[in-house]
Amino acid sequence: MAASRTLRIGLIPGDGIGKEVIPAGRRILESLPASLGLKFSFVDLEAGFETFQKTGVALPDRTVETLQKECDGALFGAVSSPTTPTKGYSSPIVALRKKLDLYANVRPVKSVAGTRAFPDPIDLVIVRENTEDLYVKEERTYEQDGDIVAEAIKRITRSASSRIATMAGEIALRRAKIRAVEKSTSTEQQKQAMVTITHKSNVLSQTDGLFRKTCFDTLAQPRFASANLKVEEQIVDSMLYKLFIQPAYYDVVVGPNLYGDLLSDAAAALVASLGLVPSANVGDGFALGEPCHGSAPDIAGLGISNPIATIRSVGLMLEFLGQGEAAARVYQAVDGCLLEGRLLTPDLGGKAGTEEVVGDVVRRL
Amino acid sequence: MAASRTLRIGLIPGDGIGKEVIPAGRRILESLPASLGLKFSFVDLEAGFETFQKTGVALPDRTVETLQKECDGALFGAVSSPTTPTKGYSSPIVALRKKLDLYANVRPVKSVAGTRAFPDPIDLVIVRENTEDLYVKEERTYEQDGDIVAEAIKRITRSASSRIATMAGEIALRRAKIRAVEKSTSTEQQKQAMVTITHKSNVLSQTDGLFRKTCFDTLAQPRFASANLKVEEQIVDSMLYKLFIQPAYYDVVVGPNLYGDLLSDAAAALVASLGLVPSANVGDGFALGEPCHGSAPDIAGLGISNPIATIRSVGLMLEFLGQGEAAARVYQAVDGCLLEGRLLTPDLGGKAGTEEVVGDVVRRL
Ligand SMILES: CC(C)[C@H](C(=O)O)[C@@H](O)C(=O)O
Ligand SMILES: CC(C)[C@H](C(=O)O)[C@@H](O)C(=O)O
């Protein structure tokens, strides 16, 4: 145990299909080849709407403390947020991101032949600021002239905008490096590293204006400029449109919290299914993998949920914990499974169950 | 002149291709068959970034006053908002919506064979609240612990939510009536009138919670319930995803200002081009037609901008001014042009110029 590195991983299945995909993620970690020299230990943790109904708390202190004190990383499934505002209930994933200061939400959207809804090859990453914007959840309600008025604060800070821009820039450069290695034998033209800053500063000149300017300033620093990083901007409504009109064009897209949330769900449609799209909530020295899909109560318990988003989130988590080689193994195994296209879950038009897909990926690791 | 009705229309081309499409809109109005008994008079009005650069004001008082005092309706082209916040400049269309209390922004997205990016027939309307949300533009910036913090207010009121829900419900019922007439001879199953309420109340329980609840309450009134209106809800991130996964499913989608802005641009990608998507900014007794596209500086002056979004906006304006028959003529002429597919602008893969498309639509009126 002393020779190889042991990573302690918190497992938070949450609700619905979270309970099916998180065990799948654990199996992937346990099945990584021994040659990588990685060991894992696990701790089961609670959060979610079921937890709230049982205990009155959606995110127990024990979950937060265990993650903070014991864990290197974590996997989070999904939670069923009630759409009817429920007294005392508040989304545990939003709280977790803030409590652990997981300031970046990294959401790669990549198409693999045979699964994609769009004909173009898509390989982009949405880097979403994860701690502020409307997600500060400072709201108030009052009466005025017989009307009811509710207000929420959208808060943007220079510090948070700067660190998310730095993260976006670093990811763009890292991706360019990986592309260069992978394609070193190919004659194909390399895509240049690029960050697209998305905002709505034509309406929100101060808040989104601050985000926009801070991102440009940050990405103009010598470390990025000298690496030939291209920096563009796109107003968020046009961004959503162009995402569908020219998806192959984009590399890294950085945005404030809410736009990032919306862009990543929209981008999932580009690659046919939310069941394919992973995310990592990343802080300094901690990464929490989380599939972008929800708890899908309609298919929970049927054993047909797509484990790919979670498996890719395992890869992302490993990547941000500095285990690039292990991550690459995971990604390649998933791509192999999708490329062969023999074992696909129903969201991708196939007939396979969760277990079969996991088994197939494990064989390819 | 006393026998037939004369409608006075303000023309606000704005910047860029706004100057090409607004004259096209005027020509359509002038070319409507005399048998409809409608006459039009026009007044040219200024607004936009060019106006701002010339006069220091983006929306001159004269424009607002003329619209208020003299006009029945108006056509607005597009403005080039500078993305770099520019002192003293503020979007004239956002201001106009508020000053004239054009509280609903109605954006139909309809596919016509041959032009659509998606195989499904799409026929939905996004009904966007047009006066509040983050568009109140109440922002402030301050320093705190060496950081810069900017805040914006997102404001939702019960009154505005209720009237936009009413508008959405009415539009859904009107559409169902039109479908019933058009398809009375067909055996095809009629789509039921439906409103999908979109929000993010799982995070913004007070603001979006108020919007959500008010919409449900409003649409539960006997006038809607007895007409068998179906009411559903969809969290806005899922809404964006589902819009692409099952676009044919949706009928009327109602949302707060910002989500409506984003959804309508995304939906434009469903039908291949923003150049096809119209909108009407509607208040009590006034309608302002506005293509959803921007000023497109890259193609301004080339004579190749797609006039269809503006021509359809002319139809919408007429519809909301109570001229349903004239509106139907405009829509049919546009559909005829698109169905034939001989004269299409480059955004739709064709080679025709703006003038040719306008000429073709005029011939079909
Ligand atoms: C469940 C919800 C609070 C969450 C969010 O809005 O961040 C989800 O949509 C996501 O993207 O992880
Ligand atoms: C130009 C801009 C201020 C405007 C908006 O955000 O409303 C535009 O995107 C629109 O949808 O009409």
UniProtKB/TrEMBL annotation, chains A, B:
EC number: 1.1.1.87
Cofactor: Mg(2+)
Catalytic activity: (2R,3S)-homoisocitrate + NAD(+) = 2-oxoadipate + CO2 + NADH
Species in which this protein is naturally found: Meristemomyces frigidus
GO MF, one annotated term: metal ion binding
Transmembrane portions of the chain: none
Record GO biological process: isocitrate metabolic process; lysine biosynthetic process; tricarboxylic acid cycle
All copies of domain Isopropylmalate dehydrogenase-like, residue ranges: 8-361
Family under the similarity heading: Belongs to the isocitrate and isopropylmalate dehydrogenases family.
Top EC class for this record: oxidoreductase
Top-level taxon: Eukaryota
UniProt lineage: Eukaryota, Fungi, Dikarya, Ascomycota, Pezizomycotina
Protein name (Swiss-Prot/TrEMBL): homoisocitrate dehydrogenase
SUPFAM superfamilies on file: Isocitrate/Isopropylmalate dehydrogenase-like
Record keywords: Amino-acid biosynthesis, Lysine biosynthesis, Magnesium, Metal-binding, NAD, Oxidoreductase, Phosphoprotein
A GO cellular component annotation in the UniProt record: mitochondrion
Pathway involvement of the protein, from the record: Amino-acid biosynthesis; L-lysine biosynthesis via AAA pathway; L-alpha-aminoadipate from 2-oxoglutarate: step 4/5
